[in-house]
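Predict the assembly for these two chains.
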Amino acid sequence: MPTFNLKINNKAYTVEAEMDTPLLWVLRDHLNLVGTKFGCGIGQCGACTVHVEGNAMRSCLIQVSQSEGMNITTIEGLSEEGDHPVQQAWKEVDVPQCGYCQSGQIMTASAFLNKNSNPSETEIRNAMHGNICRCASYNSIEKAVKVAADKIK
Amino acid sequence: MTPSKQSNFSRRSFLKTSALASGGMLIGFNLFNACKSDAKVPVDISQLNFNDFNAFIKISNEGKVTIFSINPEIGQGVKTSMPMIIAEELDVPWDDVYVQQAPLDTKNFNNQVAGGSQSIRQNWEPLRQTGATAKQMLVNAAAARWGVSPSECTAKQGVITNSKGDKLGYGDVVLEAAAMQVPENVTLKDPKDFTIIGKGTSNVDIDGIITGKPLFGLDYKEEGMLYASVLRPPAFGQVLESFDATAAKAIPGVIDVITIGEKARNFLSKGYVSWTATLSGTDKVVVIAKTTWDAIKGKKAIKAVWKDESPLESTEFHNKTLLDLLDGTSFKTMRSDGDIDKAFAEADEVLERTYESSFLPHNTMEPMNFFANVSADKIHLVGPTQTPEEVAKSVAVLLDRNVDDIYVEMTRMGGGFGRRLYSDFALEAAEISNTIMKPVKMVSTREDDMTTGVYRPATKYRIKASIKNGEISGYQLKEAAVGGNMYGLIPNFFPAAAISNYQVDVANYNSNITTGAWRAPYTNFLANAEQSFFDELAELMGVDRVQLHLDLLEKAKQNLDPKIEYIPERLQGVIKLATEKANWGHAKEGVYQGFSVYYCHNSHVAEVADIVMNNGLPEVKKVTVAVDCGVVVNPLGAKNQVAGGVIDGIGHALYGELTFNNGIPQSNNFDTYQLIRMGQTPQVDIHFVDSDIAPTGLGEPTLPPVGAAVANAIYKATGQRLTKQPYINHIKVEKILS
């Protein structure tokens, strides 16, 4: 079985996996980084969102062979102490209901705010449109992104 | 609820009552010192030597408090709100409380279920008494040490004070308190003195959620655990004939390919109901692998041949069957008041409408999964389930094992919405582990989850009302449903009692497509139908929509039938609050408002939807909600439940649809099934009725009415009455008036 060298949360990992294994399952099953969630497997729900070179990407659609050499950040590595402004905002607003989709929501929001720290309401709604929350905590997510933007500004 | 009421349980009846009613109220003061939030809690609560005490509360010598949350957490917030109730009466600072999910423990707890919005309602009094009893025992212990009467002592924020001003912390007297007699009577707090209940409190798992800690079933792992992917029949009505696993076995990481099904067939032969097609008794092919991906890949490589065991049904067939049932005479009458035939015969005018809905999958974000480790001496099960006790009992029957050898742990759940009331996934995991005698996690893909579900049944309603001398003289509701029928209490909902000639008739078709509870079962579409009908009826009568409702509720107050479920005054209260807050009747130019009001799951809700037309399509901008659920235990969590229910209800009314073709579900993932997303989401403006009445549930009641509020608003904008869901398929763009 081939091996791959991955850079995740500023740490180097070597994993043995089939070439077509999605990064999602390497993170979850091989590296025990289970904060990245499985929702649909086809890039439609956003539960598996991670940062690849700072961009929000669906880890279910990236094969491990494509991930080599990339700087990958998961929810576990977003901040040292769980205090990234987006995480703080999520806590202040008390966003989660079941909580399952929230790491994906947080990863999408943090990558978005990194590029646009002063977003309009429409920009926020567009940026977050790809992440499904089945509990429909959308009002709270929208509010938390605004709170986070204020912290980052 | 009377303030400061004395709780009149003697110790003996206290014990007895607790065991029967709610999962126990007594307090196990454990003698462990360590009770910090990172302390390891023993897996088996019975080992804590509580004797006949129940295991709700632990207090350490340092005064730190651990409260066990006994009910499963599916996102409804009970892991936060139920411990809040105990902490309030115990009178400890919330910051000193650590909440721990209790495993299934039928000896110490009863009714560890999440469903029907009942967790808070059924546990309100017992949880309060539990906290108050613990507090009294601590006070008694402090009084004994000081040699004073307990009545000279007060307890507040974890500190007991006597009349001289001496102070003792709860932790200082916990060992003595544990040896105290359980008091005969305890005094509950006056709601005016609540400091925790009614205060917005963050989700107790918030830190774990935002940092990606392993909280959910899919995150659970054990050393040596394997992964299993299950190949089930693609169509409802099919069973396995044969399969070829050669290609699957060649995949690196695939360890074995087995079949299961025999145990499930035996289980069903013992009279157990098949909740799902996955438990239909067919053989299923299971790929056992080192990782989830290997298992999923292996399953795709299986070449299976299926054969038809029963007719393969399609949506056209369901539509015709249900309409035939509505036209026919094979009804069961659930309630009949007065003489409905006479009312229709003598009417000045009659309105009749048929409302139609689709099957709906639950689509929890976390797909079905369960861990099982079956060994010769015990069975360990871990995962997301709304019904852990049912899981233990069913697995005991399935594998012919003693239920006492089965240990079930509940993880946090990535949504439930009713799907995790059914334990098929846990039974599959148990049968797989029993076959390979290894620890294994059964993991469903999204496609598995959506196509082998327990769906909200497709249902059609026909509602007919007669008008005589400007009054509603008769009202008849007919239901035709695939699978489930209207639950017994619902015929006693509004407008029963408000209309003297009233009848509810139900008919159903037994399909091989499995159906069951879906968020707000029975009412999630009924409320849409009924509240759309009343909108049209008010228009026909030439009366104000809201006033018609208030007047009907006034009549309902005169009806003293004890079977009537709703409380007219409380419905009137939410109607007034919602219409006032929404500025009903005074919408801005270009904004169209729709109204809806409903009672279910013991709570009363009124909603006003504001829509605008955008490129010929309605856009829901805002929904104003008024809720009467009694005391709001945790306003922060409660608002999340209300907003979530409203947006979920809009999403499914507008977009939710699962059709069938020859038994095969025609959507299998989120590219072919539309769930509401942020860009389609209105702002939800939430108002609670100020109340000190014992609380009722919130997980479901705001969902059923909202579809009608939206449909009624769309009518105002377009002149089109929507009667079929999903509405998006039926909105005629050319009908727009504006």
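The radius of gyration of chain A is 15 Å. Chain A has a mean pLDDT of 97.
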